[in-house]
Amino acid sequence: MTQPRKRVLLKLSGEVLMGDQSFGIDPAFVLELAKEVKAAKESGLELCLVIGGGNIFRGMAGAAQGMDRAQADYMGMLATVMNALAMQSALEQIGVQTRVQSAVQMDAVCEPVIRRRAERHLEKGRVVIFAAGVGAPYFTTDSGAALRAAEMRCDALLKGTSVDGVYDSDPKTNPAAKRYDTVSYDTVLADNLKVMDASAVALCRDNNIPIVVFSIREKGNLAKVLAGEGVQTTVQKEA
To answer: Which of 13, 36, 62, 88 is 20 to 30 Å from the Cα of 132, by its Cα?
Structure first.
């Protein structure tokens, strides 16, 4: 990343919160992630988070097994709220003030999504975690992340996954897969590269928000990526 970032949105897949487990939330691993987030914030960034729900429930998988798609997606949204609360707890354990805002209103546990309130939290040095996607079925948390990044006028959307960038084919099945250093939004969409879903990539493209894909599982990698180092792929407009 060449230009300095002031405000970024970090999108984490729910699976990352499992650590080495096969399901659910590993509190020890979430705490390690929280330390990475704290280090990023202490570098002077304003930081928003969006966390998926695939470690608890994935709407698409539920629908594939015969559940009503909208109902399954709402269940997935609730899973993201659980993950957001787990991350909030871990961050506050290590002294990082955090607010959770949910697109599905549940006043007993978190705030509703209110853009100006979220901006005020960021200005006060708090981390804001956006939960429940866009608050509607048929949209993924990738779309939720892209929407919040645009709303909050973020300089970049960082996608922390278990893969260290964007490849021209699946590196898990093709050892000869080539990793891109940079790739255009249009190439990602035309070649159906599995970065984020198409609506999320298009939203980032239309708002000129670079997407930086990197591995969050490698300790210290978030700080490296924010410093313009480390292994990553940047999805951006063609030069």
So the answer is: 36
